Amino acid sequence: MIWAPRMSHSNKLHQQIAPDVKLGKGVRIFGFTNLYGCKIGDDVKIGTFVEIQKGASIGNRCKISSHTFICEGVHLEDEVFVGHNVTFINDLYPRATNAEGQLKSEADWQCISTRVEQGASIGSGATLLCGVTVGKGAVVGAGSVVTRDVPAFAVVAGNPARVLRMLNEERAEQPAKTARSRKQVSS
Fold it and tell me: Cα separation of 9 and 73, whole Å?
């Protein structure tokens, strides 16, 4: 099911969603998106100008902000937040041509996976190199370049991203609990 709030029918024409995309329930997809060969979980929000390539998977209740590129081999677990203009990379040695000088094909490179674990947040403008894992509840600061694994509940920033501090599990989950409490009070 595709649901796009406050969007006219003409905006849906600007979505390129291939027939091989597996969409969960309650997915909201905004205009100028390109999705193919990927799996999207339930209640995911995908912003404008987002591309998600084949072989990528997005868990439940994730939010992917505008201008983000999620390439093949990227796996986001449940409740991951991805800020604006985030880029994932899946090739350690990118080249246009192979040793014979011909344009590279799928046979000429190896896709290296990246995993973002449950509840992690990736700040706007961050770049994540391939082969890394961002741990559960971790926070990657805006503009950071992640070159190695990020421990669970770590706050990292910089180029290359370095651990600034650690969150305890209770503190990392506090905003979600607070939001749920406010929603219950206002209901």
Answer: 32
| Token output for 36 | 């193919």
Distances (CA, A) of 58 to 51, 141, 166, 186: 12, 21, 25, 30
User: In the structure encoding, which two tokens stand for residue 28, read together?
Assistant: 């909201």
Q: How far apart are CA 117 and CA 52, in angstroms?
A: 18
Distances, alpha carbon 83 to alpha carbons 4, 25, 128, 160, in Å: 19, 22, 12, 18
Q: What distance lies between CA 157 and its chain's CA centroid?
A: 17
3-state secondary structure (DSSP) of residue 113:
coil
Write down all domains in the chain, each with its CATH number in brackets.
9-92+109-186 (2.160.10.10)
Give the angle subtended at the CA of 43 by the CAs of 37 and 46, to the nearest 5°.
Answer: 55
Q: What DSSP designation does 180 have?
A: H
pLDDT along the chain (187 residues), means of 10: 42 77 96 95 97 98 98 98 98 92 91 97 98 98 98 98 90 55 49
Long-range contacts of 72-75, Cβ-Cβ distance < 8 Å, separation of 24 or more = 72/111, 73/111, 73/112, 73/113, 73/114, 73/130, 74/113, 74/114, 74/115, 74/116, 75/113, 75/114, 75/115, 75/116
C-beta neighbour count of 80 within 10 angstroms: 24
Nearest to 1 by CA among 31, 29, 24, 30: 24
